Amino acid sequence: MIGYVDRSLRHTSRFVLTASILAVMLSACGGETMSSEPTTSTRAADASRTGASASAEPGRQASFDPCTALTAQFLAEHQWDALPPAPKQNSTDGVSWKGCRYVARAGYSFTIQTTDGTLEQVKKKFPSATDVPIGSRNGLRYEVRPDVPGGCTVNIEMHDGSLYILVDDPSGKHPRKLSPCDNATDIARAVAPLLPAGS
What we know:
Blueprint: H1 2-34, H2 40-56, H3 66-69, H4 72-77, E1 86-92, E2 95-103, E3 109-115, H5 119-125, E4 130-131, E5 139-142, E6 151-158, E7 161-168, H6 180-191
Antiparallel strand pairs: 1-2, 2-3, 3-7, 4-5, 5-6, 6-7
């Protein structure tokens, strides 16, 4: 009886040992091919690469952020650095704007935003808008409210819309006595070179 139990235990031990070895071998050999689900680190790396390529892809509005593109040094060089920029985002009639409002040292303010509104849409809404070249890009200059002095807007053509620049200077505080429309054009020509190629 003891010999029988002894043999049964030996057989059970061999079976458990053999099963364990097979399980280890299968997991070592087939572990990678059995699951097509990427690991967490692979997913993170892929997401990082995808995000980087998406943000660097030409023509995407996200590739230009007026709030960060206009650095403190750039603002100081143009004497536009009186106050920190205030984020500004709005949407009207299916058109969105996103960027920042700045107050220049002289006391007037201006807003720079990317928008999905195109020059064609601007021209349709403001037929009196005039063409104005901004470096190698097309631009439109117009007064939204000609009856209210001090405001003027320039839109610079971009791949997916335009860059919107609004000057508000009702008290005529520009140090060189530029009119709001000349000031908006001046700002547009200073900022346009910051736009990424292909945007």
